[in-house]
Amino acid sequence: MTFYLIASVAALGGLLFGYDTGVISGALIFIRHVMSLSPTMQGVVVSIALAGAAIGAALVGYLSDRAGRRRVILGAGLLFIAGAIISAVAQSVVVLVIGRFFVGLAIGVASMLTPLYLAEISPARDRGAIVSLNQLCITAGILLSYLVGYALASATGGWRWMLALGAVPGIVLSAGMLVLPESPRWLAGHGRVPDAQSVLQRLRGAANVSHELATLRQDIAREDRKLTSAWELLAPRLRRPLIIGVGLAMFQQITGINTVIYFAPIIFQSAGLSSAATSILATAGVGAVNVIMTVVSIRLIDRLGRRQLLYWSLGGMAVTLFVLSGAFFAGTSGELAWIAVISVAAYVGFFAIGLGPVFWLLIAEIFPLALRGRAMSLATVANWGFNLIVSATFLNLVGALGSTGAFLIYGVLSLVALAFVATTVPETKGRSLEQIEAALDAGTSQNLPSAQARPL
Ligand code: BGC
Fold this sequence. Notes:
With 456 residues, the protein is mainly alpha-helical. Helix content is 79%, strand content 0%. The protein is built from 18 helices and no strands. Helix 2 runs antiparallel to helix 3, helix 2 crosses helix 17 (372-424) and helix 12 (257-271) packs antiparallel against helix 15. The relative contact order is 0.13. Beta-D-glucopyranose binds next to helix 5, helix 12, helix 16 and helix 17.
C-alpha cells in the first residue's frame, strides 16, 4: 500500500467529521415535521452531536496514548456506522438523539486522531500538506452533505437516507484501519523500535529511514521518564504549547465559522434572498469555495509557512465580516442581498486558507510525543466546547444585537486572534516533530516565530 493511499484512507475520518456535522441542517427541516419537534428539541438534536464530540475528544487522548492510534480510529469508524444506522431508522426522538450522540462521539475521536495519525506518519517536508488532507476532507464532507441534502430533499423519507449515508465512509475507514500500519512514533514511544522501523520503511518505500529513526530514538531517550499522569499537562514545559493549542481552538470557533456552516441558508434568507431554494444553492456555493480554498492552502502551507497563512486568513476574515455587518446595517434586499452572499463566501474562503487547516495541523505538531494524545485532546475538547457555545448562542445573539452586531463581534474577535497569532504562534514548517519538540522544550521557541525560519 503506498503512502498516499494510507494517508487518504486515514483522511476519511475528516470526511465523516464534515459530512456528519453538515448533514443535520438539511435533515432537520424534515425531521422537525415528522417528529413534531419543538424549537428546544430541534436545538437538542443539533447540539447533541457537538456535545458528544467534546466527550469523544476528551476520552480519545488517553485511549490513543495507551492503545495506539490505529485501534482507536478503527473504534471510531465502527461508532460512525452504528450511529448512522441508529439515527437513520429512529422512530422516536429519543432514539434519534442516541444515534446522533454516538455519531458525535465518533466525530470527536476522528477530529483529533485523524490529524495526529497523519502528522505521525508524514515526513517533515510535506507534513503541512498531508495533515491538511484532513481539513480538505472535512470541507468535502460538508459540501457533500449539502449536495446530498439538496438531492434528497424531495424523496420520501429522504432524511433517513441523508443520515444513513454516513455509514458508507465509516465502513471504508474501518476496513482500511484493519490493514493500515500503526503510527511509527507511537510504536517507538512504546518500546517497539523494530516495529517502528519496519512501518517507517513501508511508508517511505525505497528511501533510507535510518536518519528519521535515529531522531525518533533520540527524542524518546530525551524523555527519559515515562510521562503517564495527566497532571503532566500542567508542567511548565507544556504551558506554551497548551496556550497556543487551546487559544487557537477557541479563536477558530469564536470568529464565527460555524454560524455560516450550520446556518447559511437562514443568514441568506434574512439578507433578502427570495427563495429557500436559492438560499440552499448559495450555501452549496459557499461549501464549494471552502473546498477550493483549502486546496489552495495545501499548495502553500509548506512553502509560505503556517504564520503567513494565518495572517492572510484572519485579516481577510475580519474585513469580510465588517463588510457583512455593514451590509446588514445598510439593509440588504434584492440585488444588495448578493453583497451578503459574496462576503460570506469570501469570509469562508479566508478561513479555509489559514485558520481552518492550520489549527488542526499545529495541534498535531507542537506537543511532546509522550503527551501528544492527551494534550491534543484538551485542545480538541476546547474546540468542540466553543463550537457548541457559538452555535447555541448565534440565533439569540442575532435576536439581541441584530446580524449587524453579531458579525461585528466576530470581526473584532478575528482581529484579537490576529494579535494572538503574531505574539504566540511559532513557525513549524519544514521541521521534524522532534525538532519542534526540542525547540519548544529548550525554551528556544523565541527563534521559532520567524516567518523566514529555515527548515533545520
Ligand atoms: C472546523 C470546523 C468547521 C470546518 C469548516 C474545521 O476546521 O474545526 O468547526 O466546521 O473547519 O470547514
